[in-house]
């Protein structure tokens, strides 16, 4: 499975961005799609995840009410709508895929940089 992320950029605080991530290849066993981020000097953290089949979502407390994760009907593209961006959201954002029966995220996108200026 290959994941291709896009949509990052430089914005001012309070602005919005939408990230996209398209999965290709053997996606039929996908259980979860997620967005992670890693800020300079910090560990990677999960931002949000969505179940490919049910559409159930989970968010980190830091982004609840500001970010929305969604997927297309086929479940092969995942989006992250980021509103009311804050400088603390500055990070490289990665999409990731977890397969059924696997405890880990086994496929990762290349990362897209989001920079929020104050």
Structural description of this entry:
- This protein is mainly β and 118 residues long.
- The chain is 0% helix and 56% strand.
- The chain contains no helices and 11 strands.
- The chain has strands at 2-6, 9-12, 17-24, 30-38, 45-51, 57-59, 67-71, 77-82, 91-99, 105-108, 112-117.
- A hairpin with a 5-residue loop joins strand 9 (91-99) and strand 10.
- The protein is globular and about 40 Å long.
- The mean pLDDT is 95.
**Count of individual beta strands:** 11
Q: How would you state the average pLDDT, rounded?
A: 95
Beta-strand portion reads over 45%
C-alpha Rg (nearest Å): 13 Å
Question: What is the topological layout?
Answer:
Elements: E1 2-6, E2 9-12, E3 17-24, E4 30-38, E5 45-51, E6 57-59, E7 67-71, E8 77-82, E9 91-99, E10 105-108, E11 112-117
Parallel strand pairs: 2-11
Antiparallel strand pairs: 1-3, 3-8, 4-5, 4-9, 5-6, 7-8, 9-10, 9-11
Give the gist of this structure.
The protein has no helices and eleven strands.
Properties at a glance:
mainly beta; 118 residues; 4-stranded antiparallel β-sheet; 7-stranded mixed β-sheet; globular; 0% helix
């Amino acid at each position: 499975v290959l994941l291709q992320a896009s949509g990052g950029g430089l914005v001012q605080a309070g602005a919005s961005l939408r990230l996209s991530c398209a999965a290709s290849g053997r996606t039929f066993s996908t259980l979860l799609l997620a967005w992670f981020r890693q800020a300079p000097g910090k560990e990677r953290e999960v931002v949000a995840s969505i179940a490919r089949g049910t559409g159930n979502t989970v968010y980190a407390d830091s982004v609840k009410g500001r970010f929305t994760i969604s997927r297309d009907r086929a479940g092969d593209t995942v989006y992250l709508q980021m509103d009311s961006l804050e400088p603390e959201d500055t990070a490289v954002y990665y999409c990731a895929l977890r397969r059924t029966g696997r405890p880990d995220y086994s496929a990762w996108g290349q990362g897209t940089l989001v920079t929020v200026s104050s």
